[in-house]
Amino acid sequence: MAKFIFVTGGVTSSLGKGILAASLGKLLQTRGLKVTIQKFDPYINVDPGTMNPYEHGECYVTEDGAETDLDLGHYERFLGVHTSQANNVTTGKIYQEVINRERRGDYLGKTVQVIPHITDEIKRRMLLLGNSDQYDIILTEIGGTVGDIESLPFIEAIRQLKWQLPKEDYLVIHLTLVPYLASAKELKTKPTQHSVKELQSYGVNPHIIVCRTEHPLGNDRKKKIAEFCNVDYNSVIESLDAETIYDVPLNLKKEKLDEIVLEKFGYTNLPDTNLIEWNAFLQRYKFPKKEINIGLIGKYVELKDAYISIYESFIHAGAKNECKVNVIPLSSEEINKNNIQEKLAHFDGIFVAPGFGQRGIDGKILTIQYAREKNIPFFGVCLGMQVAVIEFAKNVLNLEDANSTEMKQHCKNPVIDLMQEQKTIVNMGGTMRLGAYTCHIKENTLAHQIYGATHISERHRHRYEFNSNYLQQFIDNGMVASGINPDSNLVEIMELPSHKFFIGVQFHPELKSTILQPHPLFSAFVKACLS
Ligand code: GLN
Fold first, then answer.
1. For residue 22, which of 245, 226, 238, 342 has the smallest C-alpha distance?
2. Which protein residue's CA is at the shortest distance from atom 5 of ligand 1?
3. Within a 13 Å sphere around the CA of 217, how many CA atoms are in the beta-carbon half?
4. Which end of the chain has less Cβ packing within 10 Å, N or C?
5. Is the confidence at residue 249, as pLDDT, over 90?
6. Backbone phi, then psi, for 238, in 5-degree steps?
7. Which residues are catalytic?
8. Quick one: which of 8, 319, 263 has its CA closest to 151?
9. Is 427 helix (H, G, I), strand (E, B) or coil?
10. Distance between CA atoms of 472 and 454, rounded to whole angstroms?
11. Rounded CA gap, 325 and 321, in Å?
12. Where are the alpha helices (DSSP H) in 10-151?
């Protein structure tokens, strides 16, 4: 039977529940436990797939094709373990399931209510990953802040689970803020006391309180929080603002969070944590020997969360190359013929981001032309690859009105076109080509050199594809389709052998880069930018 840890948040949002869960998960994992993390989000969307990145940040895609919250990316990057459809549940998913059952008549005439029907479905999902013996520990992060109306059924489900799960398999951690009042030069514990009281008023007593703080709490304050909030003295943990998110596991280790959890769960004799590799990464990351600037050309550049996995992948790849990678976001809408030199000249490499829709496409085409003609390392992902194809069609193949039918439905030369299976789709949610597909890599290509393999698997999220009717023209003019899906023949990788480093991929390598296993494409791109 797996053991369950529930993580709630108090006082404000953005305290880093996801990083706390991922960090604790990492500590427990290196002690030999099999850990997974799931997130329960209170919003009514069935998944974040239909949400604008400005609303919700990046949409993270799992191997099995779930469109999920970006926190799942942190879980995978920290733990190096895949998540799945079951790891992200929203209020929308819960209600959809309950309403479908009601329509089928499964409730046999009963009035369908939040309690018990919604909470039963929440509990079923919370326990789902524990049904196999795949995991020893299941961490569950509850999105939102305690006190929000929409997260109440989740909190109620946690309360009920206390009576359903064995005592030694059930633990609640509450993450809260201890603000520092600069004028009074004092840390204030009252918001924490109130937020724990709020949680207790719903019948949930946290076992451990983790306090985000800018300054050390000191033992007196910890004692005060413990007494006012009814937790053990050793169970008030300080989480000082860290220099990087990768320091958080080390800080929590210093506070003995893993030991306290294991003690409460009744584990004895587990090996100590092993953070040798983790520390080696941190060392390389914090003390780089070189530095480069990479332009991230996209359209959601104001919001870091919109490209979070890309930024993280560059951190992994930078550490691997012992190089500080400054990723400088630049809106493609700002780029035009007159300013392109000034905008791009200081970059050692150019990355063109994934995306949807027409906005900013012209700037991306100009950018890629610039990188191609000036022999500047170029890496395009998904839409970035598609625009590289459009640019080549326009400027090298001289195909008049070359475009993607996403941008111009009736263009003369649709070099990127809607995939056949997408043509009859009407519902937009969850219907893209999603998740892991295999790709066959051609030998003696850049892709082959980078991966060192002929069969790979990568994750996808797209509706459009390279139009293979044009493939021969591209090949004749020096572009190589170095990665092909063996089942559908869909072009997955395009590259230009005549160029220093020019590669575009239809899939999303950023979704598979982890702290201990940087993605080879990002590593190779950083290396190319260095030389
Ligand atoms: N809009 C493009 C498509 O749907 C690219 C998607 C993406 O970049 N994720 O094919």
1. 245
2. 383
3. 27
4. C
5. yes
6. -95, 135
7. 382, 508, 510
8. 8
9. coil
10. 22
11. 10
12. 17-29, 53-56, 71-79, 91-104, 119-128
Which residues are 187's β-sheet partners? 180
Q: Specify whether the CB–CB gap between 382 and 410 falls below 8 A.
A: no
45 in Cβ contact with 92 (< 8 Å):
yes
Alpha-carbon distances of 291 from 222, 312, 348, 528, rounded to whole Å: 42, 16, 10, 13
Q: pTM for the full model?
A: 0.96
The helix or strand, by DSSP H or E, that contains position 175, with its residue range, turns out to be: strand 170-178
From the CB of residue 520, how many other CB atoms can be counted at a distance below 10 Å? 20
Which residue did the predictor score with more confidence, 132 or 525? 525
Q: What is the pLDDT of residues 469-492, one digit of tens each?
A: 999 999 999 999 999 999 999 999
Sign of the C-alpha dihedral computed for residues 363, 367, 368 and 369 taken in this order: positive
Cβ(331)–Cβ(380) below 8 Å: no
Measured in Å, residue 350 CA sits from the centre of ligand 1 at 19
Q: Is the CB of 463 under 6 A from ligand 1?
A: yes
What is the distance between the alpha carbons of residues 243 and 398, in angstroms, rounded to a whole number?
50
For ligand 1, atom 3: residue with the closest CA: 462
β-pair partners for 178: 213
Question: Token match 């929440």: residue?
Answer: 122
**356 in contact with ligand 1, CB cutoff 6 A:** yes
Above 90 in pLDDT, residue 187? yes
Residue carrying structure tokens 């004028």: 183
Distance 355 CA to ligand 1 centre (A): 6
